[in-house]
Amino acid sequence: MPHVKAQAMTEMTNEEITQRVSDLREELFNLRFRNSMRQLDNPLKIREGRRELARLLTVLRGKEGVKA
To answer: Would you tell me which of 2, 19, 34, 47 could form a disulfide with 39, CB atoms 3.0–4.6 Å apart?
Structure first.
């Protein structure tokens, strides 16, 4: 999945962010599994995925805080 820029994350709806978070979690699971089997070409993809997941969750939390 392509990397989403921070500006684009703030413009996404809560449903889009939630969908992207679930997709990233599934992708990270697969990357960790492939890494344990030594089949992963670039282990840095795990780090990038974790960071993007954290960014998305931060944006989601900020949007929920604004509504409350």
So the answer is: 34
Q: Are 55 and 12 in contact (CB under 8 A)?
A: no
| E strand map for 1-68 | none
Taken in order of first residue, the domains within the chain and their CATH numbers are 6-67 (1.10.287)
Give the N- to C-terminal CA distance of the chain in Å, as an integer.
32
What does each of the 68 residues of the chain score in pLDDT, given as a tens digit? Answer: 566 777 888 899 999 999 999 999 999 999 999 999 999 999 999 999 999 999 999 999 998 887 64
Task: Report the alpha-carbon distance of residue 9 to residue 7 in Å, rounded.
Answer: 5
Judging by beta carbons within 10 Å of its beta carbon (0-12, 13-18, 19+), is residue 49 exposed, middle or buried? buried
